[in-house]
Amino acid sequence: MVAWPDPPWEAKNQAAVHTWYPANFGGGPVATLRTIADAVVTWPEYATAVAVRLDAHDQMGVCAPHGLDDLLDGVWRRNPTRVSPEISRQRLARHRPAERWPRRPRRDLSQRSKHAEGCRRPRGR
Fold first, then answer.
1. For the ranges 43-47, 73-77, 118-122, which has the lowest average pLDDT?
2. What SS3 state is found at 22?
């Protein structure tokens, strides 16, 4: 197995998002988030609305309330809960996913999700 020495990632304090989100991104007040599921369901794009954690028993838990299709299929779809069409276009221009991953397959956005949805810890390894 080849290790990725410096993968790009970021962590945000979801417990405090209501204190900084409107000032940084605009929009109205954000309700206090009580769980990671409350936070993830509001993330700007469905493909990014995924949280992974490793518990004390080395078991991975995945929270993907909108499913994993958009992430796995390279689909950019805004989450209307948090992001306006204008902000989504700005984010798309800034992140340039088609340039960064030009060979990602695209799919019909009307298809039903085939991957797991929800926020739960998988059984076993």
1. 118-122
2. helix
DSSP result, 61-73: EEEETT-SHHHHH
Q: Which two tokens stand for residue 111?
A: 């298809």
- Give the range among 17-26, 70-79, 87-96 with minimum mean pLDDT: 17-26
d(CA 35, CA 20): 17
Helix, strand, coil proportions of the chain in percent (round to 5)? 30, 10, 55
Q: State the Cα torsion 116-84-37-40 to the nearest 10°.
A: 70
Place of tokens 């900084």: 20
Q: Which residue from 73, 76, 75 is spatially nearest to 115, judged by alpha carbons?
A: 73
Give the containing element (helix H, strand E) for 53. Answer: strand 51-54
